[in-house]
Design a protein that fits this description.
This protein is α+β, with helices and mostly antiparallel strands and 96 residues long. The chain has helices at 15-30, 62-68, 72-81, and strands at 2-10, 35-42, 52-59, 85-93. It has one domain (2-93): Alpha-Beta Plaits, CATH 3.30.70.
Length: 96
């Protein structure tokens, strides 16, 4: 099993649009073979500055995660929302 923590910084004026596009693909991602969990999260800062979304993912294997990144719904999401992302950090880790 692997965990993936993907944190995107989104242009402030596009955050709601980004989240709308992201929510569209969540059911498809969760239905993918090898997906154990996929949870988009927003910061709990309470300051109203919505710029970051963090996705906590759990996959049966690294191969499943790599296949996920090449699915049609991920390609559609990147095409629709990719330009709104101004920064991105991804960590893939496994339990020790």
């Amino acid at each position: 099993m692997i965990y993936v923590i993907a944190r995107a910084e989104v242009a402030p004026d596009k955050f709601q649009d980004y989240m709308e596009e992201l929510r569209k693909i969540v059911p498809d991602v969760r239905a993918e073979e090898g997906c154990i969990g996929y949870e988009p999260c927003t910061d709990v800062s309470g300051d109203g500055d919505e710029r970051f979304v963090t996705i906590i993912e759990m996959w049966e294997s690294e191969a499943h995660w790599h296949r996920h990144m090449t699915t049609p719904h991920m390609a559609a999401f990147k095409a629709a929302a990719g330009a709104w992302r101004v920064g991105n950090t991804v960590y893939a880790v496994r339990p020790s």
